# Entry
Amino acid sequence: MNPLNELLQSRLFEGPVPAAEVMALGLYHPEHGYYRRQEGPWGFDGKDYYTALDLGPLLGQTLALRLEAAWERLGRPARFTALEPGAGRGWLGRDVLNAVSGPFAEALIYVHRDDNPAARRAAEEALAPFLAANRARFAAEAEPLESFTGAIFSNELFDALPAQPWRWDGERWTREVLTPAGPEWQAADPGEAGAWFAARTDGLEPRDGSIWCEALPGLVHALASPLEAGLFLTVDYGEAADRLLAKGADLRRYKAHSVDGKWHEDLGEADLTADVDFTRLATLLEQEGMTQLSHMELSKWIRTHAPLERWGAEWMTLPAPERMKRTENLLQLTLPDMMGSRFRVLEGWKGRVE
Ligand SMILES: C[S@@+](CC[C@H](N)C(=O)[O-])C[C@H]1O[C@@H](n2cnc3c(N)ncnc32)[C@H](O)[C@@H]1O
# Structure
């Protein structure tokens, strides 16, 4: 039997287990958790899901421009630290480091932060030349972060934090739990989550509901407080709080490139994920002293910040298969049914502007 299912069965003797606890066990059990296993989940054949980084370097190239603009805005400091929590294989950092040049490249230090052992091994390979040149380094999740100037960026970090689904049944709040008979919605006190949801709707309908990520304030604080000045940028799927509520946001399971709602099955062998509440993330960042917070669809962010004309001209000089790959990469990031509308980019700013 799957060791995590065994653990869960013994936990179920004590009573129903909230879905967020099942998600925490499935993803982060120190030995058998999906993000603590020796083999990584990312990629195409034989893997569970891919991210924007599997599609090519364009997300990293656009991000590199946003980081360079932040460096300019800070008055070109001699050192610009770019911290990536949930950095996975380090491919986004690699793509950024490959894209930068000149004085900004000299100032930029990339910090990979993710305790996932499979990710760490892949990142050692992807970042090898930059590690050797002291332009990149690893930081363990428990390592206290010293104050720095620069940026914090992430791709698909916040969707991987354990989250609890809540649903309004017409009279009261219910939360999704696992019982020996399977998943159920049971009445419970939503506490802070209930007040948050209530303030984001002008009338709840039965089946309205959203997810609540308990760990979000702690993680936002741990990341944002050492940033003295600079940019916060995150790419993820999700919506504003009112839209999540109206949609009845829920947990999803990814396995072998299929998605379903069976979050309680194949624990440790399937990805579990939840939409990000961008309104709450922005509110928490504001409480950490960030300003100018905004989020937009990935497609709009790419169209606003990517040098499309320059890319078009440069790609014309590439061999046809390379040119096709770049074009496909751009389409994946911008077409609504691909990543363009499903993903959003949130940006915020902290501290001084020169
Ligand atoms: C969905 S994966 C995304 C990986 C990578 N950013 C990508 O796009 O391919 C989420 C990653 O976040 C990591 N993670 C979760 N919580 C974290 C935390 N508090 N600090 C750093 N990494 C974390 C997990 O170990 C996992 O590797």
In short: The pocket of S-adenosylmethionine is lined by residues 35, 42, 51, 53, 85-88, 113-114, 116, 119, 141, 155-157, 160, 219 (CB under 6 Å). The two ends are 59 Å apart (CA to CA).
